[in-house]
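Teaching assistant's notes for section 4

Start the section by putting this record on the projector. Ask students to predict, before seeing the second block, whether Spt6p will look compact or extended. Collect guesses on the board.
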Amino acid sequence: MDSDSVQIEQEVYGDEREPEEEDNQYSSSEAEESTDSEAAKEIAEGFIVDENEEEEVVEEVKEKRKKKKKKNKKRRHESSDDLSEDELDLIEENTGVKIARSEQKFKRLKRGVRKPSKDVKNIFDEDEEEEVLEENEEDFVVYDDGEDFIEGERHAPTLFDEVFHDLEDKYSFAFEKIEEPPDFNIESLEKVFSPEAYLTRKDKEIKLTDLPERFQLRPDIVVNRKLTKEEINQATDTITKSLADYHGILVSSQLSRSVKNALTLFGQEFVEVPYIWTYKRDLIANYDEDPVTTILSRTDLWHIFDLEYDFRKFVEMRDKLNSEIYKNHSQDSYVSKVFSEAKEIDELYDLSVYIKFQEKKKTISVQQVSPTEELRRKGMVSKNLKYLEYIHKGLLKIVDKFGVQIPSFVRSLNSETKLHQPVNESSTPREVALQLYPESKAPDELLKQSMELLAYEMSVDPMFRKFVRNNYMQNGLLITSGPLEAISDNNEIWSYCFWKIPIQKVFNIGGDFARILHYKNQNLINISFQLRNEEKFLETLKNNIVSDIPRRFDLETAPASSNHVEWNKYRVDAAFKAYNDILRPIIESWLIAKFKANAEQSIMEQCMLNLERKIDVKPFRTPEMRRNAIPRVFALSFGAGGIENDTCCVYINENGKKAQEWSWPMLKDLNSREGNEFLDALEEINPHVVAVRCYDFKTKFLLQTVKNFVRYHNERLKNQSDKATVIVTDDKVAMEYTASEIAKKEFPKSSELSRYCTSLARMIQNPLMEYLRLGDKILAIKFHPLQSFLPEEKFKEALDRAFVNVVNEVGVDINDILRDEFNEPRQRALHYICGFGPRKSIYLKQVIFGENYKPYYEPFIDSRATLKETYLEPKIFQNCAGFLRIRSDPLEPLDDSRIHPDLYDLARKYSRNTPDMDDARSNQKYFVMQLIKRENRNPFGDRRRDFEIPTDDQVFEMVTKETKDSLYPGLIVSVVVKSITTGALRVRLKNSGFECNIGWNYIDKKVNNNIEEGDTLDALVKSINKDDFTIVLSCKPRDLEKGHHISFYDKRFDEFIDRETKQNYQPPIKVKKVSQYVPKPKPKPPRTITHPCFERVSAQEAEEKLSTQPNGFYIIRPKTDNPDKLSITWKICDNVYRHFDIIELGLDPGLEVGRRLFVENEQTEYEALEELLVTYIEETNDFIDKMINHQRFRPTERQLDEFLESCLRNNPKYTAYGFYMDNSNPGCFIYGYKFRPGTRMSKMRGMFRPYGLRVEDLRFSNLDELINGMKQKIYERYSRKR
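Reveal the predicted structure now:
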């Protein structure tokens, strides 16, 4: 294989798979193979239908077709192409797939019969159902439900089904039928046109719009709107400050210039981060330093991309609000002034709240119906209802008497001199209230309500909100309490207790605020906010709200002074209430949301960088290997077994293909038969590297064995440069890959252990491709300790950005993508190319293949110019051109380099001469010339970092799951006794599960006889030998006295600790010191919940109780082997019961059932137990009842066989079929069929599901669809065999 340059496509192919009829015991019998041709002919002629069906079928067909045409026309008239917002919410909730939202809603998504197409591009088009039917009026088969079906077509999973495989588990009522793709080469199409292509209008817009897909996936904005120069300048100020606060640095002119350039590229040229980092880095460089450096990192560019999106949302909201103001509030100078000064989206929101309140005041003051009655009629609630009632009562008249001009008051707050001077009434507040409401018997209550209304008016004033918010940002403190529960001294919570940290510094603690918020939500600590200058702030409010004390020149003015004091009291109370009771909670919630978003941004960046470090790695290479060579790799493992179990060895060759596989029992003796085979394999193939890894810590046993074999092999080599290297490799990817559907599809005949070894070997050859292979399975891998605090969509976006960074660094050969449509990782790599995404990459392949799509058709792109002129829009081409390789003798040599076509003229100028970097520096083209220089010398050279063999510390961490911070000499650890022998205790570390021994000489003799298996002990780590993975532990009291428990003390937070608060802290309950010997806890009582179907019975007792109940009844009960968990016993039919566990997440104290529920081995999530029961059991019961009551159902296999024999004797020209319950697999049924009397019944297993019925990979929403689909499947199978 040519490897002169790095190829992203280095790959391992799956087992060569021959066509099979069935993979299980329910295949068609061998006895029938001799009659395949005749059987196929009989199937083609038809299946058995009931006599009444046979008589009425012809009359029904025409009427059915007419009704169907009318129905289709009506549906097309009433529906659009997109799912409704509610339906999309349901899809996202059930599938975990984030779906782009379209602007226009529709009722349902159609699915018609499969229709032939002449063009692959039509896969997304909306073919008219009646047109197909009209063209095939003379060629149709009538099925049991009477619907038309084009002869020769297949019922197979659609692309939509592939993506939303469990969409209808809970919400089948929301969909009718799903439109299916064209019927040709469907297996290839499912590879070429990835299941990630969604069939919505929004997706069609994305693939056709000349704009990078990632730009178009940002909701709530006009994605193709160019920012104006004024908006760029405004965004620069806002984003530069945000970026400086995030990094804890000062704003500088260079930072501002770089941010502005980046915003111009994002907001006006619509180019993505890889393009800027590769071709426009000079615009974000610092030319005042030597050597030239970048002011912004690539991570900063992604951050600016997010902030630019936030600014666009601000612009969208500003434009809408401006339209509203122009229409209804153009005469309000205060509104216009506030609007013109708004710089952030929070200020716009405050203004919109203010405008709505002003409008509400006008309408409520004159309407007859009270706000309470109005809301009751509308079925609505309002947290501000009492203020609306105050307005309706006319209390604004009293509020006016307070004399407070809120805009003037706020201006006074922001000024050094007092500008606000309320006007005092000559009467007292009580007298004024009685004058306005002479019939009132509670004037003081009216005054209090009026004061509250004034406070609310102040709280909705946008300038007052801004004043309070700015004070918190400048002078606010975040305060955390001590633990609210008794916790041990070595609990991590202590690191986040007793904080008093300035608001500005909270932005610099990274993702730690997410942990603080987690502890708050767990009610373990409290967080609060306060102003450092709280007293001064309140004094400022008071001084600016009151009227000045009038001078008294004589006794006649004395009453006025008394009135003045009373009016000022109400004013001050209103100001304090507006701040303390109304605004303060709002501001604190706003701060928490802001800190949470900041923490998530930090965690996202760390996840992105950590994945990037793992995939930005070259293949393993020895010094003697060629520059871009791929190593030969052996990978060995015995999985979760031990040295007594079989050892699997897989060989992956230089082409990335699985070439050979061995399995040896007890591979440990050089002179054994297995040992000789392994040595022969080493000698014959001479691998560059031998990878070793097991599922758990037993790696250490296999590692030592393999090292002995490889050492012996290396000593016998004539050329010592050919020595093999033994390494332990990370298996996080292999563990996720092994049992995945991806692996089963790629290697259907291989064992899980074989697939595990294959993944280990490929990780050494090409980590990038192996991570890409996982798809969404990658979300299960841990990249950061705090990643669980990220919403899944943000976590996925962070990982996607890592792929975008690295895939564009490596490049993608477009012709390899077109040639190898079955290589999923390589196809997925195209999604991450700059400007592309799943939809655009699929659309590009559609356009290239066009009408010439054939299974072995291999189009060839000869130049980037061809892509530009024929296949790609200008903006997409600009983004992706430099990252798409044209190899194999391109028309333009530079097409096989990272040099962008825009730079070709410059590159040709320096093709023979080395660029003058000093000149490039003076022209501020340093990075561009550096790129040209590098690419002219080595086009698409591999710039990833070298593969690093793990150090002893890293190997020890991988095998034991213990880090240098979690396990070290002198540390006291908790261990669990696993077994007791005469020589030692076998224990496992409670933190990681790693097993080791404690000799009896390291155990106190006083407790020797009291230790039992399962006991938890404290042990001191005396020493660690990382070479042979041994840990010496001691449980002697004198050793424990010398040790210490793990400390979560973090020096970073020293400056935040409030020493006085910490010193005065009194724990709720004194924590008892844990003794060395911990007796076994008493067993907990069985779980109890409040539900009419719950009973504290065993599985057997549940079956006995249900035996007298109708089919479909169920009992919720404690799990037999773990009474703290819940299980369900479900009566499927007579003497058939299904038992399954309920998996609970979020079972917080005080809750009877977890917040998130799953059925055992199922992926669908339920929010409540009742939802699970109704959706999973009761809806499934409907399908079970319909099958049991169907005329072709028989209770047992023998009875069905007799029924089929009877049918065939009466109608020998037809194929007979029926169903019976699979009693050995509760919840399943058997579809049985025969071609002729006397033959063995063929069987296929199906499952009852909440959305309908499933047989193999086919799903059916009702019994009629199942019957028709199975007829077609059997017909196609035997047609192929014929």
